[in-house]
Amino acid sequence: MTEETWGRICETLEQAIGKSNFATWISPLKLHSVSQGVARFDVPTSFVGDWVSRNFGDQILRHLVRHGEPVQRLEFSVAAPRRAPVQPARPPEPVADMPGAPLDARFTFDSFVVGKPNELAHAAARRVAEGGAVSFNPLFLYGGVGLGKTHLMHAIAWDLHKKSPHLRVVYLSAEQFMYRFVQALRERDTMGFKELFRSVDVLMVDDVQFIAGKDSTQEEFFHTFNALVDQNKQIIISADRAPGEIKDLEERIKSRLQCGLVVDLHPTDYELRLGILQQKVDDYRQQYPDLVLADGVLEFLAHRIVTNVRVLEGALTRLFAFATLVGREITMDLTQDCLSDILRTSERKVTIEEIQRKVSEHYNIRLSDMIGPRRQRTLARPRQVAMYLSKHLTERSLPEIGRRFGGRDHTTVMHAVRKIDELRAADSQIEEDLRLLRRTLEG
Ligand SMILES: Nc1ncnc2c1ncn2[C@@H]1O[C@H](COP(=O)(O)OP(=O)(O)OP(=O)(O)O)[C@@H](O)[C@H]1O
């Protein structure tokens, strides 16, 4: 199909669905190809693709057929990443034959919001991005889903590219590493594979937990790792958990991964979520200055969507798209309507029973002692911790919490909460225990 035909179809569509809808949804589509009954379009985001497919798919299909195109199906794929808030000055030239995956232009240090939960990871990433002498090798970033590990790795790569364009910086997922390795095995070119990976200056492998249990890939990864460390080349690794906790990962790899700096990206807190939302809004306003957002909407979202940043971003994108589509200001009502499914699944549903179970596991006491009458310190302290967490992570009242802890009085719960607050300030072990427990419970 020619551009001209698509142009004519667009004119008809614009009349049918109105200027504003057309500008929001159809203009961003780029016809990629029509072949074997499938018309393929590039879209700026998967959200736009889904929306167009659901709301305008039939109309587009009808028009294509009316213009003589034998199309039975439409396909939308994300062509280029969304515009970055601050674009890197110049995208890096891909190094010929390098095995890396492309970098996302949005994932830069400028667009990374720093808060308490990620400040250490951010500082370490910045340090590595400065280049120069390798101070810790590898840098191992870990944390739950969607907390910014990939973002930081890409940011390092962008910065290194900008500062030292000659450096061979390679970013890829552990899955891609395995895929390349299997391909090399199939083509009997493992030497080529080894040479390629050993010639990089900076290697970043994302989601390394993927190679756990995959014996020969682990073996190859281990040798690549050692060869690069011996040459004093920087390695950056990410995973969803600490090296020691990755099941089925060889011990020697675990210990290698622990040799450098291991940093944890903690689950986001309210302030960080709000900061990220504010940054996205500022970014969006550059494109749509007329965006009207009622007071309290961002605070509401930051409070309610605690799962991960990806979900938070998705919620905001949907809200923007919806508001643009219907030409309405983003009010609290619109937010609740439009995001009801996300809000439902993001509700924090920690129960007192869960807290009791996790806390007794953590302190290695019996669950029955959590609610039982015994009062020695080794049992009373975990019980107080569990009461404290029940107060902070559930909506239960003090009397209700007391009842669930073996029928204790609400003043006992109050005392426990106060006691743990005091201990937190004085005893870093308690603070660390609480951090870990919160993380497992909320994660
Ligand atoms: N601190 C932050 N500031 C701005 N954006 C963030 C931040 N943390 C995460 N994000 C955004 O959240 C999304 C998910 O982040 P990312 O892909 O880096 O997560 P991840 O930790 O690699 O997760 P996964 O383990 O699922 O791959 C990205 O769009 C990223 O830009």
From TrEMBL:
SMART domains: AAA (SM00382), Bac_DnaA_C (SM00760)
PROSITE patterns reported for this sequence: DNAA
UniProt xrefs under Pfam families: Bac_DnaA, Bac_DnaA_C, DnaA_N
Alphabetical keyword list: ATP-binding, Cytoplasm, DNA replication, DNA-binding, Lipid-binding, Nucleotide-binding
Domain AAA+ ATPase: 135-265
Major localization class: cytoplasm
Gene Ontology cellular component terms for the protein in this record: cytoplasm; plasma membrane
Region (Domain I, interacts with DnaA modulators): 1-80
Compartments in which it is found: Cytoplasm
GO molecular function: ATP binding; DNA replication origin binding; lipid binding
Annotated ATP binding sites: 146, 148-150
CDD domains associated with the record: AAA (cd00009), Bac_DnaA_C (cd06571)
InterPro entries tied to this protein: AAA+_ATPase, Chromosome_initiator_DnaA, Chromosome_initiator_DnaA-like, Chromosome_initiator_DnaA_CS, DnaA_C, DnaA_dom, DnaA_N_dom, DnaA_N_sf
GO biological process: one example: regulation of DNA replication
Entry note about domains: Domain I is involved in oligomerization and binding regulators, domain II is flexibile and of varying length in different bacteria, domain III forms the AAA+ region, while domain IV binds dsDNA.
Family statement: Belongs to the DnaA family.
Subunit architecture: Oligomerizes as a right-handed, spiral filament on DNA at oriC.
HAMAP family (UniProt xref): DnaA_bact (MF_00377)
Protein name listed in UniProt: Chromosomal replication initiator protein DnaA
